[in-house]
């Protein structure tokens, strides 16, 4: 009777142990399934983050392209305005030169007419006086013409220098703006990538 009870208790203990073992195996299987599911979630999250980073990069790159294009258009418009201003200045200068030549020719005609009238009157002293006066006036006019011409050249050189300096300043400003935009976009990309990495690491640690 004692031997039968011992065998019965041993059988019960073995059955209980086997049942506990089966239960642990079932729990382990559930944990493995859950772990695999969590790994799948992490992989999906990483894919989504990578896609988001890619979209952000493409968006920022597009913004940079738009900014650069706008700067180029603006610079082109400024250049066209400068060219138009130069054309108008040259046209005004040409008109002024024509008026000056016409005035010189009119004065020359008037001088010759005066000289012709003096010759017709037959007065040598009068002709001599007219010629001397004309020579003095011609010398004075020549000096004044050269003086005005030099002043105009100096003024034109100053204007051209100013235009070149302004154009150079605009180009430098445009380059600075472009560089600042590129740096800003780069920093935004770096910050976004760092943020996504931190989030992924926290998610992985949590899992």
UniProtKB/TrEMBL annotation:
Transmembrane segments: none annotated. Keywords: Coiled coil, Kinase, Transferase. Residues 7-93 form a coiled coil. GO terms for molecular function: kinase activity; kinase binding; microtubule binding. This is Janus kinase and microtubule-interacting protein 3. It comes from Podiceps cristatus (Great crested grebe).
């Amino acid at each position: 009777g004692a031997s039968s009870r011992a065998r019965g208790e041993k059988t019960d203990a073995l059955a209980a142990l086997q049942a506990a073992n089966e239960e642990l195996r079932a729990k382990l299987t559930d944990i493995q399934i859950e772990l695999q599911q969590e790994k799948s979630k992490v992989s999906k999250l990483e894919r989504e983050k990578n896609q988001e980073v890619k979209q952000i990069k493409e968006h920022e790159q597009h913004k940079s392209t738009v900014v650069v294009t706008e700067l180029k258009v603006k610079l082109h418009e400024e250049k066209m305005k400068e060219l138009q201003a130069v054309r108008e200045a040259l046209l005004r200068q040409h008109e002024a030169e024509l008026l000056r030549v016409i005035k010189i020719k009119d004065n020359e005609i008037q001088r010759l007419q005066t000289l012709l009238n003096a010759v017709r009157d037959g007065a040598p002293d009068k002709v001599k006086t007219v010629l001397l006066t004309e020579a003095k006036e011609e010398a004075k006019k020549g000096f004044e013409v050269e003086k005005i011409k030099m002043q105009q050249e100096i003024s034109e050189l100053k204007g051209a220098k100013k235009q070149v300096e302004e154009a150079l300043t605009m180009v430098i400003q445009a380059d600075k703006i472009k560089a600042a935009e590129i740096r800003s976009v780069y920093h935004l990309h770096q910050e976004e990538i760092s943020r996504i990495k931190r989030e992924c690491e926290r998610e992985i640690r949590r899992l």
